User: Fold this.
Amino acid sequence: MKKIPFVDLHSQYLSIKDDIDRAIENIISETSFIGGAAIKNFEEEFRSYLGVNYFVSCANGTDSIEILLKAMGVGYGDEVIVPAISWISTSEAVSNINATPVFVDVEKDYYCMDVKLIEAKITSKTKVIIPVHLYGQPANMPEIMKIAKKHNLKVLEDCAQSHGAEIQNKKTGTWGDCASFSFYPGKNLGAYGDAGGMATNNKNIAEAAKKIANHGQLVKHNHEIEGRNSRLDTLQAAILLAKLPHLKKWTEQRIQNANLYLTKIKASSIILPQVRLESKHVFHLYVVRTKQREKLQQILTGHEIQTAIHYPTALPFLACYKNRGHVKSDFPVASEIQDEILSIPMYAELLEDDIQIIANILNQQ
Ligand SMILES: *Cc1c(COP(=O)(O)O)cnc(C)c1O
Assistant:
């Protein structure tokens, strides 16, 4: 039986081994571990890849949300609208700056924030909307921007799962006032450790974010404010620089693999991901839905095919938000899909033969 891992970072490494090894060796032999040319170059290359005015690197994709919220002046007593399904960073970052995350249920078809439900959650305290481009699918940005404009709110896009995704031919991360990126190893562009960054066209947000991420200084020893240490590690920047030129190809391979799943999986009990109109979904994850998730996961595990669940508990129902008293009927879609979603293997290097093996097993259900 052939083992099929959930992600395969090793085969990606082997495909670019010389470049990666050289990048790491250079940083070590230059002993420039903090700051330096690799940081500047990565910031410039990723800025230009996105097509924004500013890109500021930082330590990870959770800090980037926190720092951007602070850079926009959000804090105690403010409310921030977030989707009911995401990784906890999205809401945790809001609480960590002493603001309150307000959850909105997600769309039945696309699993992103449901724009029809946003306005009912807006109060006089609301400052920001954080759409998450979940699994690599762009949120409904045209509508979200309309609502934000009408209510004078800022928009922070959580692009941790959506490097290169587009809606109406415009990249995610270029729609809102600013955008947060994660380069966690398993993300579509991943470092060999933690890494993150912040994109914006707004000079004030960029400067404030840069300051906060480096102890409140833009010029060494001139601490205009108290910030924090959230610098990107130079080794990680060098690794990301070596990987970035491959991102377009890797993204197309993910999309190709998603198309293969789409043509090969025929089981009527399994709902496959749908792509929003006029959108480019970059398939960070390939998430199927079934009423028999546990059984299906066990069968796949039995065939040495790794799966995962993103995420088994929707944000409003996590233990840490128990005091909010949320009940399932507050978030009917999220509460239904949290019990049905299953992420099956998805990465650029996944082979058509592997996809066929997985499809054959699913088609027997
Ligand atoms: C991965 C992720 C983050 C946070 O990224 P880290 O770099 O791990 O801190 C934030 N939001 C979403 C939706 C993510 O998937």
